[in-house]
Amino acid sequence: MSITAAMVKELRDKTGAGMMDCKKALAENDGDMEQATDWLRTKGLAKAAKKAGRVAADGLIAVASQGARAAIVEVNSETDFVARNETFQELAAAIAKVAIEVDGDRDKLLAASFPGSQNTIEMQINDSIATIGENINLRRSQMLSVDAGHVASYVHSAAAPGLGKIGVLVALKSDGNADALAEIGRQVAMHVAAASPLAVGADDLDPEIVERERAVYAEQARESGKPDNIVEKMVEGRIRKYYEEVVLLKQAFVIDTEKTVEKALKDAEATAGAPIELTGFVRFGLGEGIEKEEADFAAEVAAMSGQ
Questions:
Q1: Is the overall model pTM greater than 0.90, yes or no?
Q2: Topology annotation, domain 58-199+260-285
């Protein structure tokens, strides 16, 4: 397979490895990006693949809460200028509130009535495109709820209340004091915004992801020349460390790094007066996973001038 410069650049951006190392990794793995990434990691040439997609879309993340229920939506625009537009902000906030009523289902949300209008939300978005002059898209939506307890929310880089660049929901199941649950819930939501965990507990992780990590660690350990029994212990140690990096309950709590999130929740039970179970979380980062086509500015100018 022919290895292109674009492929090398993509792997370099993804791993932080050198250009020649990336080219070799792709050549050794027939151009397969994931296998090349693992090859680089095995050789110690790449950073751990803890990354979100390149943030290339603008707009807002909006959250709306109703005690034991809360919703989060991502509404994209083409520019940050539009995201600061009051009309756009009102649109995003209204959509988040309706999302609670449809359990966060995106298709149902688009078909739902827009508050104070004859329009559906999809029609309202289309009208806003005509008014604002930019493409607007409801990209995703999700809702969390608990039978008893609290669903906390947090937005980072807030443009207005409930609107920002990163949004988080955290569901806490408990019969405890509402104020205490709201406080610890907000703290954990802030932690999720900062730490980007992949799952609540180790058992919630995708088994394929865990096995992929285990394979990389095993290959690295074998290259050390250690006996198999030592290699196995080394791998298990790395897996435990991996859990501490990506599992929410095992992560060091950003509010107090001397304890884990799990310990922070346990400590909060004394104030709440009842057990607390973290049943789920959602983290939306604006534009994650979306890539815009990179424009060649010089070529655009030349084209406009007729050259």
A1: no
A2: Tetrahydropterin Synthase; Chain A (3.30.479)
